[in-house]
């Protein structure tokens, strides 16, 4: 396809005049592009025919929807369960004061549709878990701008599980972005072929929780006083009221409790804003970092759909697939290949070896999964090769297996035995080979 | 149950809206942002400038003005989000201004459709603005006027390109741009001064560790690790000529001494505070040394020879330099990391550090007042400013603003003291200097090929003839490379030379491929990075880019070079 044909096409129906810049670049062979990739009309055809799914219509999601619409994609779906809060307005630019309380996906979709002619955006206001494989199968790829690690892990496991070697269409690339303050990262995942979200989990280790005894007896920091009010005082004094993080009366109560405790211990620094931050686990978020990471994700989507340049993760498995961005001290990116893990519970098939102290109780062992960087499970259930050791998700089984919690691991498993660990928040199970520390 | 009355200091509606950013740059940063007036001189398809403004209007930068004489065309609608179908045929400056203003009612937006050529001839035309963004293409003569204004009035200036898969921006800062509030990594900020304890700290150590052996398991396991380390340091010193561990070997020995103090006869079979102490040995036993940034500040002419009209920064820096000469340490920041400890012990320790920090601050403040008196300055510096400087002294940063290159047809680019660095970058695979060179060639090409359109706008290479323009541009980039080699006083042999030329040719071809057109994603990305840097410069927080930033959307990498 040469340039004149594209020009004719543009002038012919008139509607492509606005894509002048995009069409020009796509219709010319680039020096870094794969020479086998089609250029011109065929590449543009790809753009306007594929269906794209965007997960999240928040800080990253608003940017992603705008960017995809202005990258020439015309059939975009978006999922988000949240409604608009006033604290979203400093960066989620598709929302106005009058939209507070409405569904993000709906408002964002209508706004971008009205601004960019010719794009169709289909919102779904609900959870990604409401949808099944048939639903996800209709998309060419998924762009994910979420702040919830659980949701990321869920969609990742779903897309990996959908891959059918007989059917190349079943492989849905996942383009994922995340930000925190001036830092962020974007990556492209080719399920089963390159490192997945679960392989990368230990790059985002959870902050170690403050031990309960510190909160209960020896607080030192203002945050300890707030956590005490949050975890201990509320349950003691307001057991019958469900704590609502968005209710100012509830936050005010916690703040005043924390302040009183801090005064008792001579600890300075408790503020209302800090109380909110600790209780809601607020991560700083700014428009500029969201713009950067979302644009990076959509640039990968555009390269992937048009073949106009190599996107991250191509060609697998050795290509760079992960970019980290840091903007607080000058600007740095580090773009590298994150290797797929053979013992990944989602995309690998080997059990991970874990050294354990056989004198641990099962209770201690169960609790350790919340802080294990590669697992991060809050409600784990555990099976050995022979039997169920502990099952939390079903009440009757929990009762049945509860006595095991007090037993030592050496009484329950043998050295070298494999166990499976699962959690109701995820549809995967982790395989571990337990090796006793001598 | 009675409802809780709202606290007096509950958040205002503005604090609610800006909550997520106030947690980064605080009320001071926000106030600075709200006082700013940013001018965007918009050229070309102009998306990168508008995307930058979007990211500044949202966090509440007080005022912006768009200068753009273009009329909205169909092609704008495919790349610019802040235009609607009914914008066609209207002033682009006006339309973008209106749609940007919708984002934040707290921000004042203005526009002018006057061509830059006449706008710039008016005296004082640029005076109202506290920061200037200029997007390429701009004629070299006009860029020169803008740079001269920026230099003379100390106004920060950003010059921005976004073409196809590449972008670049250069930052022109005042000759001295000091940052006190650099927001260093929290892990690096505590200065525990273990090698130079002062009497109050030594006394606390004696008080809390005199009877270690006799302590109950519970008490022993809660002695703050800082006190444990100081306790064992005393022991070590008494056996080593009163000297702290000097080298890695001695530090390792000392670490084993600390480890041996762990009580293991308790039910846990170990102690967390002891583990913390062991882990802290190597990090905290280094003699206090000034970072190269701090040395640069202390040695700079402005610090050594502060004058009556010096910026406050230099007066305080000069005072802290004297403090350092007297005490061989920087003022104590006063923060103590969290550690395993009982509440009252930790608070006592914290108070000893805070009291010392206040004493150090008082000493610095009195030196500041002496300098002010000697210089006969009439406006005393706010104590808070001195206090903030004392807290952040170890991590201050001085950026030396420098001029930027202006590419003119037929003229050689001068690299001056950066020639050798530029030469080294040519063969560095991680450096994106070839994108920078391609943009220099791009500007030079534009200046030599004025289009017939309005605005004196330049014709971008590749607008119509991809191959012929590529060939011209490759030759121009090649010339720039040869000039760098020559100015650096070096030679480059094959195969290196051929590899450098091939790399440059590819990058230039990729650039010409776009024919001067913007891709929305690349402009959105660049609009994010430029806005971030503008925020750092306006708030004087965090460390800004020094001074050129290139983004390669093909390989998804950024490179920041001082050129
Ligand atoms: Zn995996």
TrEMBL record, chain A:
UniProt xrefs under InterPro entries: E2-binding, ThiF/MoeB/HesA, ThiF_NAD_FAD-bd, Ub_act_enz_dom_a_sf, Uba3_N, Ubiquitin-activating_enz
An example molecular function term from Gene Ontology annotations: NEDD8 activating enzyme activity
ATP-binding keyword on record: yes
Pfam family, one: ThiF
Top EC class, one word: ligase
GO CC entries: cytoplasm; nucleus
Transmembrane segments: none
Organism superkingdom: Eukaryota
Described function: Catalytic subunit of the dimeric E1 enzyme, which activates NEDD8.
PANTHER family the record matches: NEDD8-ACTIVATING ENZYME E1 CATALYTIC SUBUNIT (PTHR10953:SF6), UBIQUITIN-ACTIVATING ENZYME E1 (PTHR10953)
Name of the protein: NEDD8-activating enzyme E1 catalytic subunit
TrEMBL record, chain B:
Pathway: Protein modification; protein neddylation
Keyword match Phosphoprotein: no
Keyword tags: Ubl conjugation pathway
Summary of the function given for this chain in its UniProt record: Regulatory subunit of the dimeric UBA3-ULA1 E1 enzyme.
UniProt-listed Gene3D superfamilies: NAD(P)-binding Rossmann-like Domain
Keyword Calcium: no
Similarity comment text for this entry: Belongs to the ubiquitin-activating E1 family. ULA1 subfamily.
Domain THIF-type NAD/FAD binding fold: 18-541
Protein name, UniProt field: NEDD8-activating enzyme E1 regulatory subunit
Single GO term (MF): NEDD8 activating enzyme activity
GO cellular component, one term: cytoplasm
Pfam families: ThiF (PF00899)
Top-level lineage group: Eukaryota
Listed InterPro entries: APP-BP1, ThiF/MoeB/HesA, ThiF_NAD_FAD-bd, Ubiquitin-activating_enz
GO biological process, one term: protein neddylation
